[in-house]
Design brief:
single chain, 11% helix, coiled coil, Methylamine Dehydrogenase, Chain H, WD40_rpt, 415 residues, mainly beta
């Protein structure tokens, strides 16, 4: 994948890429607390952590800061914890969700309650709950540290695809397909998933609907894969809960969308949300800004309340021990100033096994396809190369010690 945070306009065809995976990259996420760290997952069964150098890439990056192996099938989703630094979740086609502590570079918990491929994951505001949608047509609310399913909905009339927590309202919003194959959204109470609070049909198109929620302005944005428009709604605390406002229209269809963090918005222009729209037909990424029209040039307190900042509220050990804490908030009044002193330090790992809940995740996992066999071969080649380098270094050290011993014996003092 490409990384060009400091450049605008069309890039050169030979622009450096992050290209260390041995399979297609299926998901990437920027670290919310360290702005030059990216997590990616791939068909090669690995999750990798990349450290983008200051000033951007100067050459292709093939060496990851950290490689994480624990899934037996390809990995489709990664998600950073919203309040804790160095906690990362990954969901694989082995139907498992692994919780990684990047301080030690190992999985520390495993969520094993799904019976099919996991389609989407979403944390609540303080990261104490995880909502998932699955190909088995079920919506689940899970306590991630224990893996216990707190609520579960079997969505027969509303086949769920995507889910998002609506801030601290204790509600969930899902997008999916109705029994008549029309695109649909549903609102749920996170403490009772027996029936949705409301269901609303959108249209009869076939592309996935991606939901994006802005807790500061209580705005919900819906963008369909293959559509050219983005609808936006206001979320209320009372019925009818969901109020349609209007939509952004464009003739160019979108394949995917990324979102700029709040601290990267232009507050002087009253920009409240910014999408980065992937237009595959033209090979373009187009920024789309959502701007509240205001005549005044002063800072607008009502549309920029205190918002989650770039400082983590918890350490991995605190969160894993059961502590929950709301995000540390920051003001956007003075504009974003990078004052975070957190840096990512990849741990040195010697263990050859990955044991979670008493199970070695890497033991006796046979390749299921020819591609998996090739990926296992490449992984073994990397391990052989590493061991050869380690052996070469030890040979050099042995020769050095032999010379030192010889010099010591020939020393006049010892004679």
């Amino acid at each position: 994948f490409l990384d060009f945070p400091f450049q605008t306009g069309r890039i050169e065809p030979n622009y450096p890429k992050v290209c260390g995976h041995q399979g297609n990259v299926l998901d990437i996420k920027w670290n919310p607390f360290i702005e030059n760290i990216i997590a990616s997952c791939s068909e090669d069964t690995s999750v990798r952590i990349w450290e983008i150098p200051e000033g951007g890439l100067k050459r292709n990056m093939t060496e990851a800061a950290l490689e994480l192996y624990g899934h037996s099938r390809r990995v489709g989703l990664v998600e950073w914890h919203p309040t804790t630094n160095n906690i990362l979740l990954s969901a694989g086609y082995d139907y498992k969700v692994l919780i990684w502590n990047l301080d030690i570079g190992e999985p520390v918990k495993m969520i094993d309650c799904h019976t099919d491929v996991i389609l989407c994951m979403s944390f609540n505001t303080d990261g104490s709950l995880l909502a998932t949608t699955c190909k088995d047509k079920k919506l689940r609310v899970v306590e991630p540290r224990s893996g216990r399913v707190l609520q579960e909905a079997s969505c027969k009339n509303h086949r769920v695809n995507r889910v998002v927590f609506l801030g601290s309202t204790k509600r969930l919003l899902t997008t999916g397909v109705s029994r008549w194959n029309t695109r649909q959204i549903a609102l749920w109470d996170q403490e009772d998933l027996s029936m949705p609070l409301i269901e609303e049909e959108i249209d009869g198109l076939s592309g996935l609907l991606f939901p994006f929620y802005d807790a500061d302005t209580h705005m919900l944005y819906l963008a369909g894969k293959g559509d050219g428009n983005i609808r936006y709604y206001e979320i209320g605390s009372e019925k009818p809960y969901l109020s349609y406002l209007m939509e952004f229209r464009s003739p160019a269809p979108q394949k995917g969308l990324g979102v700029m963090p709040k601290h990267g918005l232009d507050v002087s222009a009253c920009e409240v949300f910014r999408f980065y729209k992937l237009i595959t037909l033209k090979g373009l990424i187009e920024p789309i800004s959502m701007i509240v029209p205001r005549r005044s040039e002063t800072y607008q307190e009502d549309i920029y309340p205190m918002t989650p900042g770039t400082e983590p509220a918890l350490t991995p050990d605190e969160w894993l021990s059961g502590v929950n804490r709301d995000p540390i908030l920051m003001s956007l009044k003075e504009g974003y100033k990078r004052n975070s002193k957190i840096v990512f330090k990849a741990p040195v790992r010697e263990k050859k096994s990955v044991v979670v809940n008493g199970i070695d995740l890497l033991e006796n996992v046979p390749p299921r396809t020819e591609n998996e066999l090739l990926r296992m071969f490449f992984r073994q080649q990397d391990e052989i190369r590493r061991l050869k380098d380690e052996l070469s270094q030890k040979d050099i050290r042995i020769r050095q010690l032999q010379l030192e011993l010889k010099n010591f014996r020939n020393s006049p003092k010892n004679n």
